[in-house]
Protein: 33 kDa chaperonin
Organism: Serratia rhizosphaerae
Amino acid sequence: MSNHDQLHRYLFENYAVRGELVTLSDTYRHILENHDYPAPVQALLGEMLVATSLLTATLKFDGDITVQLQGDGPLKLAVINGNNQQEMRGVARLQGDIADGSTLQQMIGNGVMVITITPAEGERYQGVVALEGETLAECLENYFRQSEQLPTRLFIRTGEADGQPAAGGMLLQVLPAQDEQNADDFDHLVQLTATIKNEELFTLPANEVLYRLYHQEEVTLYEPQPVIFRCTCSRQRCADALLTLPTDEVADMLEQDGNIDMHCDYCGNHYVFDAMDVAALYAGNTGESDQLH
Ligand SMILES: [Zn+2]
């Protein structure tokens, strides 16, 4: 199953429509491990992971996309971040109990979805959408409509395969500058895609999924791109963050606990700095400024 986490792009030869298909197990499991999320939160993170993978695959430049849900409900925050290399991470924060079978609205309460697109170079773009759809996919389709992008449909599934968490999804999008595109043609492809079953998506190779859905169409399937879990945290980043804190605050933390344990919510890594480490950090810092004198 190690090569199961893959993003595929495909193209219909006789329609100006492109597609994406992603299946995820290892990446999804990494995001869930070290956390004790209730089942509905696990499923929602899976949906957001699929969505973020499909969205980042539409980027035409180096950069990353963050999909964030936030509200006043028991699920305070759920966030997935991914880049065009298909490196993904994510986390959820709870502030109340979440019963089995809770809907998106019951979890988030009054809330919004925030989509942040950060190019490696250039302006950051942020879109905010009300959570008006029943499902995450509907909310995302609203986002595509509101931001006046190309007609886009998403199909997202989460569940289990071989006793492991599994998630997958598909995206259909009308190609740019195809004003001749017939809306009925797009609807036809949407209806075919909507028949995808969880089991097919989670277990079959991409070419078989496409054949089952579109056997009467000519479809070109491109080389897949691997999807992986990767957190951007590091000891250096934590050290940099420590150095921005007031020195008396750092001294207080050291005095209370003997060391400073910085914990990354995304991957569960701990970065521990004892008094010696902190002294070395400050020495390194002043060392540099000494050289400037
Ligand atoms: Zn991390």
About this structure: The radius of gyration is 22 Å.
